Amino acid sequence: MGQGKVIDCAVTPPFKEFFINPSYMDNYTRVYGIDPEKELKALLDMGWTVDSFTQMLDGEGIDIAVIRARDIETTYGLKITNEACADIVKKRPDRFIGLAGVDPLKGEAAVEELDHAVRDLGLRGVDFWTYEYKIPSHDRRFYPIYEKCLDLKVPVFIESSMHFSRHAPMDICRPIYLDYIAIDFPDLQIVGSTPGWPWVSELMGVAWRHPNVYVSTSTVRPKYFSRPNSGYETLLQHGNSTLQDKIMFASGWPMLSMKQGVEEIRALPLKDAVKEKWLYHNAAQLFRIDGGKQS
Question: Are 80 and 15 in contact (CB under 8 A)?
Answer without folding.
Answer: yes
